[in-house]
Amino acid sequence: MSRQRRFLVLGLLGFLAVVALAVIWVLPRWIARHPPELVTAQPAVPPPAASADAVRQARAKRAAEALLSQVLREQAQLMDGGVERWAKEDFAAALTRLAEGDVAFQDARYEAALSAYRAVADQFAALRASRPRRLAAALRAGDEAFARPDAAAAAEQYRIALALEPGNAPARRGLKRALNLDAVLAHMKEGAARREAGDWAAARQAFAAAATLDPEYEPAARALEQVEKKLAGIRFARHLSAFYKALSAGDFAAAGQWLAKAGGVRPGADELAIARRQLDAAERRAKLERLRAQAARQMAAEQWAAALESYDQALKIDPHVAFAQHGREQGRPRAGLDAALERFLSQPERLYSPGPLDNARRLLTTARAVAKPGPRLAGQIEQLARLIRQAVTPLPVTLVSDGATAVTVYRVGALGRFVTRRLELVPGDYVAVGSRQGYRDVRRRFSLRPGRQMAPVTIICEERL
């Protein structure tokens, strides 16, 4: 029943109530004040039964009016609560029964009207009591429609649930998901087509769009996870391919970078461990090859100490590498010979002592016995031989005195008194001592070196005691 018709019915009922009050209260008083003229016999008195029926009807009318007012309030409350959305048929049936009651009331069948209004009140109470059950059913129906999937039906059921309970969180969430469902399914369809075509990046974009619209939509989350794994596998394979390309080119730095990128995509993969061992082995081989070539160059250049250091580095990498073991066997004697020669060549004054001079002669013999000496050794042999010759070649030195001072030269002997004395002495360091009765002794040190002009050495005792 429309709201306008309801107001019309209420107005009619009000009018009827006024008329009834006039009949019951006003009319008797008016008749009492204005009695009709009697022209015949006394008027008939209503039988007692008729009076009791009028009273009953009046009571039924008042009860019907009161109940109607209550029913109308409940009707308004139900309509405000969206009853026409969640119980349309049951509510329409109640309104039909209400209209029947109104017709009965208009026909002055007040007891029938009261019975109808009571039935409507019961129907409205049943509608209110059914809200929890209807809410659960709407939520369940919405979930089932969403799963089919039927976005429109699901949205309608969630709207019904929200009409029953406006603040219901599952209904709000379900309605939002239902409104997005068609768009989610469109993205899912596009993602599946892209995946089938092998366009994994586009598939990921489509599935990600679906998951963004509805984070709770598990098919989108699963599809996105699968595509992410596929893309990760593609990136992993691409990084490993770049790694092996760099490895074969000997670019170990780049290979290490590509391997790190692959590890970022799929940490702990077995392929990474294999690739790391291959990289380590390749780096070891490259280092050993570099050290082998370096040591060979050093050996050829007679840089024996440096070559031994290179061989030692190689043996640290691999204690069993053959070239380093063999190289050390070859290089160690030559390194010792080279070091010994260099000590004499860098300190030739050592040759001015008998012991070191003998050692140098033996060392020279050993060096000359080396087969196929290189330029460095040949130069060392020649230089040491020259130094030995210089060390045993006497050099002139002039000693000056006063004829009164007795002169002795250590390692040479007593020379007595003289004014001038010329000696031939092998290179070295000497001490001349002068002594004279009544005078303090004097000591003069002088050194003879090949290639140097030696100034006269004066030895005179001049300080009296």
Mean pLDDT over the full residue set: 87
CATH topology annotation of the largest domain: Serine Threonine Protein Phosphatase 5, Tetratricopeptide repeat
Domain count, please report it.
Answer: 4
Topology as a string of helices (H) and strands (E):
HHHHHHHHHHHHHHHHEEEEEEE
Distance between the termini: 158 Å
DSSP strand content = 5-15%
Residue share in helix: over 70%
CATH architecture of the largest domain, by name, is Alpha Horseshoe
Main sheet: which strands, in order across?
A: 3-2-5-6
Number of strands: 7
* Biggest sheet statistics: 4 strands, antiparallel
User: Which class of secondary structure composition applies to the elements?
Assistant: alpha+beta
Treating each run of at least 4 consecutive H or I residues as one helix, how many helices?
16
Low-confidence stretches: 1-45
Which class of the largest domain in CATH terms?
Mainly Alpha
Rounded to the nearest angstrom, the radius of gyration is 64 Å
Anisotropy-based shape: rod-shaped
